[in-house]
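Researcher: Re-running this chain for the archive, since the previous output was lost when a drive failed. Same request as before.
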Amino acid sequence: MWSKISLLCSTIGPIGYFPASGTFGSIIGFLFFIIFKPNLFLVFSLLIVSFFLINSALRHFNKKDPSAIILDEFIGIIVALVFLPYFSFKLAIGLFFLFRFFDIAKPFPIYLFERLPYAFGVLADDCVAGLVSVFLIRFFIDLGIIV
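Model: Regenerated structure tokens:
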């Protein structure tokens, strides 16, 4: 039973099997954030639960980070959004596109986190992509490029 639940949650139902599933997972996470406005404690709790769900779901696949598992993208964008200095739709959309770029391209140091074992690697690269994205947004705000 637990393996079915973890697989269903990790793939966000059938969405993990769609083309561009990572983008859909990010969009769902974005919408979750807008609707529920989670605080840091809730985000941390979701991260912990996601670790166990993904770790269990990985047993179903014969890959280190299968594209069908999109709970990591869901969590990664939420991690980024919770650290925005202020919320505006324009800022959040910019953050979304930065996150997707870093999640797909995985430049240094993001790709190093993907090498971690099990669910650590699946989640860590997305969380770091989110943190790098929000760092850049904050940097642009500090430079006065974004107001």
